[in-house]
Amino acid sequence: MDPKDLLKMLDLEGKPPDAPKEAGVMTRPGAETDPPADASPTALEVDAWGLRRGRDLVAESERLRKAGTDEFAAADFFSVAFDPDPKLAASCSDPRRHQFVSQLLDTPEYHALHAATRLDDTAAGIAVTHFAEQFSRLKKEDTKDHAGGAAGGPGDALGEEMATLRAVGRAVAEAGKEVGELHEATAALGMGPGSPGSNDPRAVAELFKRVRGDPALRRICELAGRFRRVAQSKQRMKTTHGLDDVVGVEPGGDVGRLLPVELAKLAIPELELDTLRRIAEREALCREYHAVEPVGKGPVIIALDESGSMDGAKIHTAKALALTLAWVARQQRRWCALVAYSGDSGERLLPLPPGRWDESRLADWLSAFIGHGSDIDVPVREMPRMYRELKAPTGVTDLVFVTDARCRLPAGVRDTFLAWKQAAQARLVTLVIDNQPGDLAHVSDEVHSVRSLTPDSDAVGRVLSL
Length: 466
Hints:
Number of strands: 8
Strand content: 5-15%
Number of domains: 3
CATH topology of the largest domain: Rossmann fold
Structural class: alpha/beta
Strand order of the largest sheet: 5-4-3-6-7-8
CATH class of the largest domain: Alpha Beta
Radius of gyration: 31 Å
Shape: elongated
Protein backbone atom coordinates (compact mmCIF):
# COMPACT_ATOMS: atom_id res chain seq x y z
CA MET A 1 0.00 0.00 0.00
CA ASP A 2 1.47 3.31 -1.04
CA PRO A 3 1.16 6.53 1.08
CA LYS A 4 -1.61 7.95 -1.12
CA ASP A 5 -3.81 4.92 -0.56
CA LEU A 6 -3.23 5.11 3.18
CA LEU A 7 -4.21 8.84 3.33
CA LYS A 8 -7.28 8.10 1.26
CA MET A 9 -8.34 5.24 3.50
CA LEU A 10 -7.92 7.39 6.67
CA ASP A 11 -9.65 10.36 5.07
CA LEU A 12 -6.55 12.49 5.55
CA GLU A 13 -6.30 14.13 2.19
CA GLY A 14 -5.67 17.53 3.84
CA LYS A 15 -8.87 19.21 2.70
CA PRO A 16 -10.98 21.03 5.29
CA PRO A 17 -14.53 19.80 5.77
CA ASP A 18 -17.29 21.56 3.91
CA ALA A 19 -18.92 24.34 5.92
CA PRO A 20 -22.51 23.52 6.83
CA LYS A 21 -25.03 25.44 4.83
CA GLU A 22 -28.65 26.07 5.58
CA ALA A 23 -30.95 24.84 2.94
CA GLY A 24 -31.81 27.45 0.37
CA VAL A 25 -29.29 30.09 1.70
CA MET A 26 -26.77 31.42 -0.79
CA THR A 27 -23.65 33.35 0.38
CA ARG A 28 -21.88 35.92 -1.72
CA PRO A 29 -18.09 36.21 -1.99
CA GLY A 30 -16.58 38.40 0.78
CA ALA A 31 -19.62 38.02 3.05
CA GLU A 32 -17.41 36.65 5.83
CA THR A 33 -15.83 40.13 6.24
CA ASP A 34 -19.17 41.89 6.70
CA PRO A 35 -19.94 43.26 10.17
CA PRO A 36 -22.44 41.29 12.27
CA ALA A 37 -26.09 42.18 11.88
CA ASP A 38 -26.18 43.55 15.43
CA ALA A 39 -23.03 45.68 14.98
CA SER A 40 -23.01 49.06 16.73
CA PRO A 41 -23.36 52.20 14.57
CA THR A 42 -20.45 53.68 16.54
CA ALA A 43 -16.95 52.33 17.02
CA LEU A 44 -16.99 53.32 20.71
CA GLU A 45 -19.49 52.73 23.46
CA VAL A 46 -21.29 56.06 23.23
CA ASP A 47 -24.17 57.13 25.47
CA ALA A 48 -27.22 59.18 24.42
CA TRP A 49 -25.51 62.47 25.31
CA GLY A 50 -22.52 61.59 23.12
CA LEU A 51 -24.83 60.78 20.19
CA ARG A 52 -26.64 64.09 20.64
CA ARG A 53 -23.31 65.91 20.78
CA GLY A 54 -22.36 64.23 17.51
CA ARG A 55 -25.55 65.48 15.85
CA ASP A 56 -24.94 68.99 17.18
CA LEU A 57 -21.36 69.04 15.90
CA VAL A 58 -22.41 68.02 12.39
CA ALA A 59 -25.16 70.66 12.41
CA GLU A 60 -22.75 73.38 13.61
CA SER A 61 -19.63 72.60 11.57
CA GLU A 62 -19.41 73.15 7.83
CA ARG A 63 -16.01 71.39 7.81
CA LEU A 64 -17.57 68.20 9.19
CA ARG A 65 -20.35 68.26 6.61
CA LYS A 66 -17.83 68.89 3.85
CA ALA A 67 -15.84 65.86 5.03
CA GLY A 68 -18.99 63.72 4.77
CA THR A 69 -19.06 62.99 8.50
CA ASP A 70 -22.34 61.57 9.82
CA GLU A 71 -23.61 61.88 13.38
CA PHE A 72 -22.25 58.49 14.44
CA ALA A 73 -18.73 59.22 13.18
CA ALA A 74 -18.85 62.65 14.85
CA ALA A 75 -19.98 61.01 18.10
CA ASP A 76 -17.07 58.58 17.89
CA PHE A 77 -14.48 61.29 17.26
CA PHE A 78 -15.91 63.51 19.99
CA SER A 79 -16.04 60.69 22.54
CA VAL A 80 -12.49 59.58 21.84
CA ALA A 81 -11.31 63.11 22.58
CA PHE A 82 -13.72 64.14 25.36
CA ASP A 83 -14.44 61.02 27.42
CA PRO A 84 -11.98 60.30 30.25
CA ASP A 85 -11.85 56.59 29.40
CA PRO A 86 -13.25 55.79 25.92
CA LYS A 87 -14.22 52.14 25.42
CA LEU A 88 -14.01 50.40 22.04
CA ALA A 89 -17.17 48.57 20.95
CA ALA A 90 -16.95 44.91 19.97
CA SER A 91 -17.92 45.68 16.38
CA CYS A 92 -19.06 48.58 14.25
CA SER A 93 -21.22 48.91 11.18
CA ASP A 94 -18.28 50.78 9.61
CA PRO A 95 -15.26 48.43 10.02
CA ARG A 96 -12.87 51.05 8.62
CA ARG A 97 -13.88 53.56 11.27
CA HIS A 98 -13.57 50.88 13.94
CA GLN A 99 -10.02 50.21 12.73
CA PHE A 100 -9.20 53.95 12.65
CA VAL A 101 -10.43 54.54 16.21
CA SER A 102 -8.73 51.37 17.46
CA GLN A 103 -5.38 52.46 16.00
CA LEU A 104 -5.92 55.94 17.43
CA LEU A 105 -6.42 54.60 20.96
CA ASP A 106 -3.17 52.62 20.74
CA THR A 107 -0.83 55.50 19.86
CA PRO A 108 1.15 57.34 22.58
CA GLU A 109 0.68 60.63 20.70
CA TYR A 110 -3.08 60.28 21.16
CA HIS A 111 -2.70 59.82 24.92
CA ALA A 112 -0.64 63.04 25.09
CA LEU A 113 -3.36 64.87 23.14
CA HIS A 114 -6.12 63.27 25.21
CA ALA A 115 -4.66 64.80 28.37
CA ALA A 116 -5.40 68.23 26.85
CA THR A 117 -8.86 67.45 25.41
CA ARG A 118 -10.65 65.23 27.93
CA LEU A 119 -13.64 66.92 29.56
CA ASP A 120 -12.85 70.06 27.50
CA ASP A 121 -15.72 70.59 25.09
CA THR A 122 -13.99 73.20 22.92
CA ALA A 123 -10.66 71.34 22.64
CA ALA A 124 -12.49 68.07 21.90
CA GLY A 125 -14.52 69.81 19.19
CA ILE A 126 -11.30 70.97 17.54
CA ALA A 127 -9.91 67.43 17.65
CA VAL A 128 -13.14 66.08 16.09
CA THR A 129 -12.64 68.20 12.98
CA HIS A 130 -9.10 66.93 12.38
CA PHE A 131 -10.02 63.29 13.08
CA ALA A 132 -12.96 63.53 10.68
CA GLU A 133 -10.96 65.18 7.89
CA GLN A 134 -8.17 62.63 8.05
CA PHE A 135 -10.64 59.74 8.19
CA SER A 136 -12.43 61.14 5.13
CA ARG A 137 -9.09 61.40 3.35
CA LEU A 138 -8.30 57.80 4.30
CA LYS A 139 -11.58 56.52 2.85
CA LYS A 140 -10.93 58.40 -0.40
CA GLU A 141 -7.51 56.76 -0.62
CA ASP A 142 -9.19 53.38 -0.08
CA THR A 143 -11.62 54.10 -2.89
CA LYS A 144 -8.78 54.98 -5.27
CA ASP A 145 -6.89 51.81 -4.34
CA HIS A 146 -9.96 49.65 -4.95
CA ALA A 147 -10.65 51.37 -8.26
CA GLY A 148 -7.04 50.77 -9.33
CA GLY A 149 -7.22 47.10 -8.44
CA ALA A 150 -4.78 47.37 -5.53
CA ALA A 151 -7.13 45.68 -3.03
CA GLY A 152 -7.22 41.96 -2.49
CA GLY A 153 -3.50 41.27 -2.79
CA PRO A 154 -1.39 39.47 -0.17
CA GLY A 155 -0.21 42.76 1.36
CA ASP A 156 -3.62 44.46 1.30
CA ALA A 157 -4.32 44.08 5.03
CA LEU A 158 -0.87 45.36 5.91
CA GLY A 159 -1.25 48.24 3.47
CA GLU A 160 -4.58 49.24 5.02
CA GLU A 161 -3.07 49.17 8.49
CA MET A 162 -0.14 51.35 7.45
CA ALA A 163 -2.47 53.81 5.70
CA THR A 164 -4.57 53.97 8.88
CA LEU A 165 -1.51 54.66 11.03
CA ARG A 166 -0.43 57.47 8.71
CA ALA A 167 -3.91 59.02 8.84
CA VAL A 168 -4.00 58.72 12.63
CA GLY A 169 -0.56 60.34 12.92
CA ARG A 170 -1.58 63.29 10.74
CA ALA A 171 -4.85 63.75 12.65
CA VAL A 172 -3.19 63.74 16.08
CA ALA A 173 -0.40 66.09 14.98
CA GLU A 174 -2.75 68.68 13.46
CA ALA A 175 -5.23 68.44 16.34
CA GLY A 176 -2.42 68.82 18.88
CA LYS A 177 -1.14 71.95 17.17
CA GLU A 178 -4.54 73.66 17.14
CA VAL A 179 -5.45 72.57 20.67
CA GLY A 180 -2.13 74.07 21.81
CA GLU A 181 -3.05 77.35 20.13
CA LEU A 182 -6.44 77.24 21.87
CA HIS A 183 -4.85 76.86 25.29
CA GLU A 184 -2.31 79.61 24.62
CA ALA A 185 -5.05 82.00 23.49
CA THR A 186 -7.42 81.30 26.36
CA ALA A 187 -4.66 81.48 28.98
CA ALA A 188 -3.37 84.76 27.54
CA LEU A 189 -6.83 86.35 27.55
CA GLY A 190 -7.75 85.23 31.06
CA MET A 191 -9.77 82.07 30.40
CA GLY A 192 -7.16 79.41 31.11
CA PRO A 193 -7.76 76.35 33.32
CA GLY A 194 -8.99 77.35 36.76
CA SER A 195 -9.85 80.91 35.70
CA PRO A 196 -13.37 82.35 35.91
CA GLY A 197 -15.29 81.57 32.73
CA SER A 198 -13.04 78.70 31.66
CA ASN A 199 -16.01 76.30 31.86
CA ASP A 200 -18.09 78.28 29.35
CA PRO A 201 -17.50 76.36 26.07
CA ARG A 202 -19.36 78.87 23.92
CA ALA A 203 -17.37 81.84 25.21
CA VAL A 204 -14.09 79.95 24.84
CA ALA A 205 -14.98 78.91 21.28
CA GLU A 206 -15.96 82.45 20.28
CA LEU A 207 -12.74 83.82 21.76
CA PHE A 208 -10.62 81.26 19.90
CA LYS A 209 -12.37 81.97 16.60
CA ARG A 210 -11.51 85.64 16.99
CA VAL A 211 -7.87 84.93 17.83
CA ARG A 212 -7.52 82.48 14.95
CA GLY A 213 -8.96 85.02 12.51
CA ASP A 214 -6.67 87.90 13.58
CA PRO A 215 -2.96 87.33 12.77
CA ALA A 216 -1.79 90.10 15.12
CA LEU A 217 -3.89 88.82 18.03
CA ARG A 218 -2.73 85.29 17.33
CA ARG A 219 0.90 86.36 17.43
CA ILE A 220 0.41 88.28 20.68
CA CYS A 221 -1.16 85.24 22.38
CA GLU A 222 1.65 83.00 21.14
CA LEU A 223 4.31 85.35 22.54
CA ALA A 224 2.36 85.74 25.79
CA GLY A 225 2.67 82.00 26.34
CA ARG A 226 6.48 82.27 26.25
CA PHE A 227 6.49 85.23 28.63
CA ARG A 228 4.08 83.45 30.98
CA ARG A 229 6.39 80.45 31.33
CA VAL A 230 9.24 82.80 32.29
CA ALA A 231 6.94 84.59 34.74
CA GLN A 232 5.99 81.30 36.39
CA SER A 233 9.65 80.53 36.90
CA LYS A 234 10.41 83.99 38.29
CA GLN A 235 7.47 83.89 40.68
CA ARG A 236 8.55 80.50 42.06
CA MET A 237 12.05 81.85 42.70
CA LYS A 238 10.79 84.74 44.83
CA THR A 239 11.41 84.56 48.58
CA THR A 240 8.18 83.82 50.41
CA HIS A 241 7.32 83.93 54.08
CA GLY A 242 5.53 81.25 56.03
CA LEU A 243 1.79 81.31 56.64
CA ASP A 244 1.25 82.39 60.23
CA ASP A 245 -2.27 83.47 61.08
CA VAL A 246 -5.69 82.91 59.61
CA VAL A 247 -7.11 86.39 59.17
CA GLY A 248 -10.29 85.73 57.22
CA VAL A 249 -12.00 83.95 54.35
CA GLU A 250 -11.47 84.57 50.64
CA PRO A 251 -12.64 82.96 47.38
CA GLY A 252 -10.10 80.58 45.86
CA GLY A 253 -9.38 77.13 44.49
CA ASP A 254 -6.60 75.89 46.79
CA VAL A 255 -7.85 72.56 48.15
CA GLY A 256 -5.43 72.75 51.06
CA ARG A 257 -7.10 75.96 52.29
CA LEU A 258 -10.76 74.96 51.81
CA LEU A 259 -13.09 75.53 54.74
CA PRO A 260 -14.56 72.40 56.38
CA VAL A 261 -18.03 73.33 55.08
CA GLU A 262 -16.70 73.19 51.49
CA LEU A 263 -15.02 69.84 52.10
CA ALA A 264 -18.26 68.48 53.54
CA LYS A 265 -20.15 69.46 50.39
CA LEU A 266 -17.83 67.22 48.35
CA ALA A 267 -19.29 64.24 50.23
CA ILE A 268 -22.89 65.15 49.33
CA PRO A 269 -23.79 63.86 45.82
CA GLU A 270 -26.28 66.70 45.19
CA LEU A 271 -23.64 69.38 45.96
CA GLU A 272 -20.48 67.68 44.71
CA LEU A 273 -20.53 68.90 41.09
CA ASP A 274 -21.35 72.50 42.03
CA THR A 275 -18.56 72.50 44.64
CA LEU A 276 -16.05 71.12 42.11
CA ARG A 277 -17.10 73.83 39.66
CA ARG A 278 -16.54 76.57 42.24
CA ILE A 279 -13.13 75.10 43.12
CA ALA A 280 -12.17 75.01 39.42
CA GLU A 281 -13.26 78.63 38.98
CA ARG A 282 -11.58 79.75 42.24
CA GLU A 283 -14.87 80.72 43.86
CA ALA A 284 -14.83 78.30 46.83
CA LEU A 285 -14.43 79.59 50.38
CA CYS A 286 -10.80 79.29 51.53
CA ARG A 287 -8.89 80.39 54.61
CA GLU A 288 -6.97 83.63 54.17
CA TYR A 289 -3.55 83.60 55.80
CA HIS A 290 -1.33 86.43 57.00
CA ALA A 291 2.38 86.41 56.09
CA VAL A 292 5.27 87.31 58.40
CA GLU A 293 5.80 90.69 56.76
CA PRO A 294 2.52 91.81 55.27
CA VAL A 295 2.84 94.32 52.43
CA GLY A 296 -0.23 96.05 51.09
CA LYS A 297 0.00 95.43 47.37
CA GLY A 298 -1.98 97.83 45.26
CA PRO A 299 -2.61 97.97 41.52
CA VAL A 300 -0.39 97.05 38.59
CA ILE A 301 -0.48 99.51 35.67
CA ILE A 302 1.27 98.79 32.35
CA ALA A 303 1.59 101.69 29.90
CA LEU A 304 2.68 100.94 26.32
CA ASP A 305 4.00 103.36 23.72
CA GLU A 306 1.78 103.08 20.62
CA SER A 307 3.56 105.63 18.46
CA GLY A 308 4.14 104.78 14.80
CA SER A 309 7.71 103.59 15.44
CA MET A 310 6.39 100.76 17.68
CA ASP A 311 4.27 99.21 14.92
CA GLY A 312 4.85 95.55 14.04
CA ALA A 313 6.95 93.15 16.09
CA LYS A 314 7.73 95.72 18.81
CA ILE A 315 4.13 96.35 19.80
CA HIS A 316 3.20 92.66 19.50
CA THR A 317 5.95 91.75 21.96
CA ALA A 318 5.09 94.66 24.25
CA LYS A 319 1.42 93.64 24.37
CA ALA A 320 2.40 90.03 25.07
CA LEU A 321 4.50 91.29 27.99
CA ALA A 322 1.57 93.41 29.21
CA LEU A 323 -0.74 90.38 29.07
CA THR A 324 1.74 88.38 31.12
CA LEU A 325 2.02 91.12 33.73
CA ALA A 326 -1.78 91.18 33.93
CA TRP A 327 -1.69 87.39 34.48
CA VAL A 328 0.88 87.84 37.29
CA ALA A 329 -1.33 90.51 38.89
CA ARG A 330 -4.30 88.16 38.69
CA GLN A 331 -2.36 85.36 40.37
CA GLN A 332 -1.56 87.81 43.17
CA ARG A 333 -5.23 88.90 43.26
CA ARG A 334 -4.24 92.46 42.39
CA TRP A 335 -6.14 95.00 40.34
CA CYS A 336 -4.53 95.72 36.97
CA ALA A 337 -4.89 98.20 34.11
CA LEU A 338 -3.54 98.35 30.57
CA VAL A 339 -2.79 101.75 29.03
CA ALA A 340 -1.99 102.43 25.38
CA TYR A 341 -0.66 105.92 24.73
CA SER A 342 0.74 107.95 21.87
CA GLY A 343 1.67 111.51 22.75
CA ASP A 344 -1.23 113.94 22.57
CA SER A 345 -2.99 111.92 19.86
CA GLY A 346 -5.00 109.54 22.00
CA GLU A 347 -5.06 106.92 24.71
CA ARG A 348 -6.86 103.66 25.44
CA LEU A 349 -7.50 102.53 29.03
CA LEU A 350 -8.60 99.05 30.09
CA PRO A 351 -9.07 98.08 33.75
CA LEU A 352 -8.72 94.37 34.55
CA PRO A 353 -10.08 93.45 37.99
CA PRO A 354 -8.89 90.23 39.70
CA GLY A 355 -12.14 88.40 38.80
CA ARG A 356 -13.29 87.51 35.32
CA TRP A 357 -12.01 89.85 32.62
CA ASP A 358 -14.08 91.19 29.76
CA GLU A 359 -12.44 89.06 27.06
CA SER A 360 -14.07 90.95 24.20
CA ARG A 361 -12.82 94.35 25.42
CA LEU A 362 -9.39 92.87 26.06
CA ALA A 363 -9.23 91.50 22.51
CA ASP A 364 -10.34 94.91 21.19
CA TRP A 365 -7.57 96.62 23.18
CA LEU A 366 -4.94 94.20 21.88
CA SER A 367 -6.07 94.49 18.26
CA ALA A 368 -6.17 98.30 18.10
CA PHE A 369 -3.18 100.55 17.47
CA ILE A 370 -2.99 104.37 17.67
CA GLY A 371 0.08 104.91 15.48
CA HIS A 372 0.82 108.61 16.09
CA GLY A 373 3.40 110.14 18.42
CA SER A 374 5.23 113.10 19.93
CA ASP A 375 8.23 113.80 22.18
CA ILE A 376 6.55 112.11 25.17
CA ASP A 377 5.07 108.77 24.12
CA VAL A 378 4.43 107.47 27.63
CA PRO A 379 1.82 109.06 29.92
CA VAL A 380 4.07 110.89 32.40
CA ARG A 381 1.99 114.06 32.37
CA GLU A 382 -1.36 112.24 32.18
CA MET A 383 -0.79 109.40 34.66
CA PRO A 384 -2.33 111.19 37.71
CA ARG A 385 -5.50 111.85 35.68
CA MET A 386 -5.58 108.30 34.29
CA TYR A 387 -5.13 106.91 37.79
CA ARG A 388 -8.29 108.73 38.87
CA GLU A 389 -10.27 107.80 35.74
CA LEU A 390 -9.38 104.13 36.13
CA LYS A 391 -10.51 104.28 39.78
CA ALA A 392 -7.43 102.35 40.79
CA PRO A 393 -7.45 101.08 44.39
CA THR A 394 -4.98 102.51 46.86
CA GLY A 395 -1.83 100.65 47.86
CA VAL A 396 1.73 100.06 46.76
CA THR A 397 1.51 100.48 42.97
CA ASP A 398 3.72 98.80 40.38
CA LEU A 399 3.96 100.96 37.27
CA VAL A 400 5.64 99.73 34.06
CA PHE A 401 6.42 101.88 31.00
CA VAL A 402 7.43 100.32 27.68
CA THR A 403 8.64 102.67 24.92
CA ASP A 404 11.19 103.01 22.14
CA ALA A 405 11.48 106.82 22.37
CA ARG A 406 14.04 109.08 24.04
CA CYS A 407 11.70 111.22 26.14
CA ARG A 408 12.21 114.89 26.92
CA LEU A 409 10.37 115.99 30.03
CA PRO A 410 9.87 119.64 31.02
CA ALA A 411 10.89 120.33 34.60
CA GLY A 412 7.30 121.05 35.65
CA VAL A 413 6.00 117.78 34.23
CA ARG A 414 8.81 115.87 35.90
CA ASP A 415 8.22 117.43 39.33
CA THR A 416 4.44 116.91 39.15
CA PHE A 417 4.89 113.24 38.24
CA LEU A 418 7.41 112.64 41.06
CA ALA A 419 5.02 114.23 43.56
CA TRP A 420 2.15 112.01 42.37
CA LYS A 421 4.36 108.94 42.43
CA GLN A 422 5.25 109.53 46.05
CA ALA A 423 1.63 110.13 47.03
CA ALA A 424 0.41 107.00 45.21
CA GLN A 425 3.27 104.84 46.58
CA ALA A 426 4.13 103.99 42.99
CA ARG A 427 7.30 102.28 41.83
CA LEU A 428 8.14 102.84 38.15
CA VAL A 429 10.13 100.38 36.05
CA THR A 430 10.84 101.55 32.49
CA LEU A 431 11.89 99.42 29.52
CA VAL A 432 13.34 101.40 26.61
CA ILE A 433 13.66 99.44 23.37
CA ASP A 434 16.70 100.13 21.20
CA ASN A 435 17.17 103.70 22.45
CA GLN A 436 18.42 105.78 25.36
CA PRO A 437 15.99 106.54 28.22
CA GLY A 438 16.52 110.28 28.16
CA ASP A 439 14.63 112.11 30.91
CA LEU A 440 12.75 108.91 31.90
CA ALA A 441 15.85 108.01 33.90
CA HIS A 442 15.05 110.91 36.27
CA VAL A 443 11.50 109.71 37.07
CA SER A 444 12.00 105.92 37.07
CA ASP A 445 13.03 103.77 40.02
CA GLU A 446 14.54 101.34 37.51
CA VAL A 447 15.26 101.89 33.84
CA HIS A 448 16.51 99.26 31.40
CA SER A 449 17.67 99.83 27.83
CA VAL A 450 17.18 96.65 25.80
CA ARG A 451 17.74 95.69 22.18
CA SER A 452 14.42 93.80 22.15
CA LEU A 453 11.87 92.38 24.55
CA THR A 454 13.04 88.77 24.54
CA PRO A 455 11.60 86.55 27.31
CA ASP A 456 15.05 85.40 28.46
CA SER A 457 16.52 88.89 28.92
CA ASP A 458 17.41 90.05 32.46
CA ALA A 459 15.36 93.23 32.14
CA VAL A 460 12.18 91.35 31.17
CA GLY A 461 12.82 88.82 33.93
CA ARG A 462 13.10 91.65 36.44
CA VAL A 463 9.73 93.06 35.35
CA LEU A 464 8.06 89.64 35.45
CA SER A 465 9.24 89.04 39.02
CA LEU A 466 7.20 91.92 40.51
